[in-house]
Design brief:
This protein has 367 residues and is of the alpha/beta class. Helix content is 23%, strand content 27%. The chain contains nine helices and 19 strands. Helix 6 packs across helix 7. The protein binds guanosine-5'-diphosphate (GDP).
């Protein structure tokens, strides 16, 4: 009996469902067993998310990018700063890179494409991602998926298509949506170990249409809140439906809590509106700055939740950072994995409190 998946080549294991090579006991008894991930792909045409730690991630992606590739760099529009894969700029420069910005369905209905696209490409340049183009999509609703397929037809036939992105950006959902369009019959999937790696990359040939897709695992990181909360808390911070902007008319001496994961104190400046874009189900609590510390002490894990006791312990200590802006353009304070606060552009001095290891990203306002 082989201990290697005959589909992707990953060593078979029964311990961790979202790690490469996972197989159930029952499936392991079959002849020529394949891991759960290959099984679902081969038989149901379904991709399954897979995340691996940073140390191994880079090796996997470098191997996948050893050949000329058309790279689909998948990002989550709700969490652009948390979608940036650290440290791959150099190797990406040798390839044709397109940003696929997913979850457009979360944005307000009237959001226009072009300004968001230009904004995104500017942000990508700032992060040194060598992308030639971006497409805004929703794997969930199918928005612009046909346009993405047209781009692939035109630009990626002779190259392998490498799909990469941080965990939870919706890479698997996107691949599932792509597959159903590139190969509607879904009859001919074969997976194969990506040459030289057993770490979780998988090459998929799509029928006779000439496409080869290389799926890479998702990357997780301590700098993103979504990777440090428990499964129950993840449901409270991941948006599932169109974001309902929450507008707060704030004045100095007031604080806003985003669950118990972030706090914004308004220290100095004229009264102004702050718009909070977080998952609709996450509780936002306004209080007096004077009472904010004691409220946090008394209600963390209750009124102010997540985090809960099952989340990473480090999320229960918030570290303050001063932020200050003169009168000018509106800016966002983006918190990886949690959402963003839109400041109106009036002068303001404030303090943002975030869990240790999580950094606020200041950017031109997106919406
Ligand atoms: P992966 O880890 O990058 O492979 O991400 P998944 O495909 O597993 O998706 C992560 C989460 O994002 C899941 O809760 C999905 O339901 C959700 N998701 C994926 N695509 C979309 C989308 O287009 N819109 C919305 N609103 N949610 C999405």
């Amino acid at each position: 009996m082989s201990l290697i998946c005959t589909g992707c080549g990953a060593p078979l294991q029964m311990d961790t469902e979202d790690a490469p090579g996972y197989i159930t006991n029952e499936a392991f008894m079959r002849e020529q067993p394949v891991c759960q991930r290959c099984y679902r792909l081969i038989h149901y045409g379904q991709f399954q998310p897979m995340a691996i730690p940073e140390e191994t991630y880079r090796q996997v992606v470098m191997k996948a990018l050893a050949r000329p590739s058309f790279v689909l760099y998948v990002m989550d529009l709700f969490d652009v700063s948390g979608s940036i894969v650290p440290g791959l700029t150099g190797v990406l420069r040798q390839h044709d890179v397109m940003i696929v910005a997913n979850k457009f369905d979360l944005f307000p209905k009237q959001t226009a494409d072009e300004p968001v696209k230009s904004w995104l490409l500017r942000e990508a340049r700032r992060a040194e991602i060598p992308a030639s183009d971006a497409v805004l999509v929703s794997a969930k609703t199918g928005y612009h998926m046909d346009e993405l397929v047209e781009q692939l037809e035109a630009r990626a036939r002779k190259k392998q298509i490498v799909v990469m992105g941080m965990a939870n950006v919706g890479k698997s959902s996107l691949l599932n949506a792509l597959l159903s369009r590139l190969d509607p019959e879904q009859t001919r999937f074969t997976t194969s170990a990506f040459p030289g790696t057993t770490l979780g990359s998988m090459a998929i040939k799509l029928g006779d249409n000439g496409f080869t897709i290389v799926d890479t695992p998702g990357l997780m990181g301590k700098h993103r809140i979504q990777d440090r909360v428990c499964k129950a808390s993840l449901k409270l911070i991941m948006p599932t439906e169109r974001l309902r902007p929450r507008v707060y008319q704030l004045q100095k001496g007031q604080s806003l809590f985003l669950g118990g994961l972030a706090r914004f104190d308004f220290i100095e400046g004229p009264p102004q509106s702050v718009v909070v874009y977080v998952a609709n189900q996450l509780r936002v609590h306004r209080t007096k700055l004077q009472q904010a510390d004691s409220l946090y002490q008394r209600h963390l894990g209750g009124l102010l939740t997540p985090p809960c006791v099952s989340c990473d312990e480090g999320l229960r200590t918030l570290v303050p950072k001063n932020v200050s802006f003169t009168e000018g353009r509106p800016v966002d304070l983006a918190i990886p994995g949690l959402g963003f606060l839109r400041l109106s552009g009036h002068a303001i001095k404030g303090v943002i409190h975030l869990p240790k290891g999580v950094t606020v990203n200041v950017r031109n306002a997106l919406l």
